[in-house]
Amino acid sequence: MAMDDSHSSLFNLGILDTLTQDELHEILDSYEAFCNATQSLLGGAGDLSYGAQFVSHVHTLFMELTLTEQDAAHWVYRGEGAANIVVSYTGSSPSYIGKVMRIRKSPRKASALPGVRNTIALSLHERLIWKKVHELISSSDKEIAGQLYVDHVMKPLLGSKYVDAGSHILVTKEFLMTVEKNVDSQRPASRVDVSQVDKQCDFALLMSDHSIFPQGIETLALLLTISLFFI
């Protein structure tokens, strides 16, 4: 799966803080193997015999940071709105325990869900308003711009204690297809009729599950939708 310029500001490296020591060592080992293969390929005086090894290490390193079809069984339906489906994690990986994932939807018909597939991030007027927030105006995807807005505008205003911007994570098409197959039976029929998982989108938004509190504490969860550019 290719990553283009639209992903230049997509991923929050803070997600690495959630990895276990074993997972970090596995990634570092893969990266070391990748560097060794790269050095051998570049220093091989035209010898391309290291090419297959190089490609293999690139693939391994990429997949270790990507949710694949095998991971889909651990994500279950939580709810949805007009533009996204939310699934929660039920597996045992420390990286995802206590997390939910917001997956973009797309309309089943071109006339359904107007605006859901609008990926133009900012208008010219909005770029003028937020010209001092470089990360925001450089984004070419509306959903990415939304996450960056929360991270670079709302979080400084309200404080990191009260704002969770989440972080984007790579997902494969097979992961999205399997998640959709698993959750469709739990979705309201009215939602299924007009929308589906956007399987052309290769990322999802990972966030803490704020409906979970320590045992014995009553839970009240509210979803506050803040206008992206006007408060």
Structure description:
The protein has 231 residues and is of the alpha+beta class. It has two domains: 14-66; 69-208, Inositol-pentakisphosphate 2-kinase, N-lobe (Phosphorylase Kinase, domain 1), CATH 3.30.200. Helices cover 34% and strands 16% of the residues. The chain has helices spanning 21-42, 51-63, 124-129, 134-137, 142-158, 173-183, 189-194, and strands spanning 66-67, 75-80, 84-89, 99-107, 167-171, 195-197, 203-208. Strands 1, 2, 3, 4, 5, 6 and 7 form a seven-stranded mixed beta sheet that branches. α1 packs antiparallel against α2 (51-63). The longest helix has 22 residues, at 21-42. It is globular, with a radius of gyration of 20 Å. Residues 1-11, 57-63 and 114-118 have low confidence and may be disordered.
Give the tally of structural domains.
2
CATH class of the largest domain: Alpha Beta
Kindly name the structural category.
alpha+beta
Could you report the average pLDDT, rounded to the nearest whole number? 75
Shape: globular
Q: How much helix is in the residues?
A: 25-40%
The number of E-state strands comes to 7
Compute the gyration radius: what is it?
20 Å
Measured between the Cα atoms of the first and last residue, the distance is 37 Å
Tally of alpha and pi helices: 7
Question: What characterizes the major β-sheet?
Answer: 7 strands, mixed
Q: What would CATH call the architecture of the largest domain?
A: 2-Layer Sandwich
Give, in order, the helices and strands.
HHEEEEHHHEHHEE
Report the β-strand fraction as a percent range. 15-25%
Q: Which regions contain 5 or more consecutive residues with pLDDT less than 50?
A: 1-11, 57-63, 114-118
Could you say what the CATH topology of the largest domain is called?
Phosphorylase Kinase, domain 1
Name given to the CATH homologous superfamily of the largest domain: Inositol-pentakisphosphate 2-kinase, N-lobe
